[in-house]
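ARCHIVE RECORD
Type: protein–small molecule complex
Small molecule: adenosine-5'-diphosphate
Source of inputs: curated submission
Record status: active
Notes field left blank by submitter.
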Amino acid sequence: MQRTVLVLAASVYQLDAIRTARRLGYRTVTVDNRPENPGHAMADASYTVDTTDRDGVLEVARRESIAGIVSPCTDVAVPTAAYVAEQLGLPGPPFKSTLITCSKSAFRGFLKAHKFACPATFDIDPTFEPEPGLFDRKWVVKPNRSSGSKGVVIVDSRASFDRALHSSLAFDPDRTGVLEEFIGGVDGTCEGFLRDGRIAFSLLLERVTAPAPHVATHGHRVPIRLSPVDRKRVLETIREVLRALDIVEGPFDCDFIVRPDDVVILEISPRLGGNSITPLVRASTGLDLTELTLRSACRDEVAIPTDVEERPAGLVLLGTSRAGVLALDLDEVERLRLESWVVYLELDATPGTAVEAFIDGRKRVGEALLTGASREQVDERAAELLRRVNVRALEAHV
Ligand SMILES: Nc1ncnc2c1ncn2[C@@H]1O[C@H](COP(=O)(O)OP(=O)(O)O)[C@@H](O)[C@H]1O
Ligand SMILES: [Mg+2]
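STRUCTURE (tokenized, with ligand):
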């Protein structure tokens, strides 16, 4: 009999999971509050239920007698997946832990309580009054429960804080956020998979970000430029944090910053990473994390290779530095697609349409996955691709 997997959300970011689930032979059910989202059309059954409506999703899960539940590439749905899994005795992270990992404020409190490295942090709301002298160094304003760098801004003066505050908090359902000290260091992301409390697979990626004061992820590169000792420090810290959260099985996605004396975990979430990290992991290591995640969510046998080779690769997210009318070189896009080192190059906006500046994840206009013989070559090719596609925003004629 065909077993059913429930995929939370059905936007473009979940298509890979929905496709993979079907390819693996699972009956695939989606829930999402937007019936027009593209994933529903691919699923065997779909429901218009908000992914944060825990009891609504539980009802669907019961009705569909699901074998497993996943929340790929979306943070807000992770507690729902955990809640449903706990209620039905299916694999999933502890619900209690997901309430910590999906709240920046709660996660900072957790780091402090467990004596992990943590930047100085204030919980903020629209009435927050920064103490005088605070802005003699840089800080970061963030909405509490949000993702994709929406509303995350670096501030270095009272005036820039005041400008950022309200628009940032608008991304949080309760209008709360955090103001935390800016940390300098190597920006990285770790994509991994846990088995019986052990990190059975991990890949460290270097994160390329938008120019300050913004922080949106503009891409990832493999291998990360860290010494073997630093890599070990990162993985050790992640292991300890996951252990303290009692998360022992399944995928995780972690953003961190490496400083000379410590590793700061910015965020960690028991789900597959967004920003097309899964195709990048596949291109670099051959491992399909989506497949692993679905199979382990349904308690099917998973085989994780022990010695994974890390081939140089890069993911480039395309966007414009300011708002305007999108322009890019379509002939070059076609030529680039024929290059042996371009795995794929996709556009999700058409030249001539209005675009906003690429300051958060939703404002991207396309992406490319590329490979190289070395990290240097990956960086050169990423720069070449950006130069040749020449994505820009033109002034709108009024
Ligand atoms: N304290 C900090 N110091 C330096 N950079 C930071 C800090 N906090 C966040 N960032 C940058 O901002 C990005 C987004 O912040 P994050 O907390 O991960 O929010 P989101 O949930 O929107 O991804 C991070 O990936 C990192 O590049
Ligand atoms: Mg993040």
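CURATOR ANNOTATION: The radius of gyration is 21 Å.
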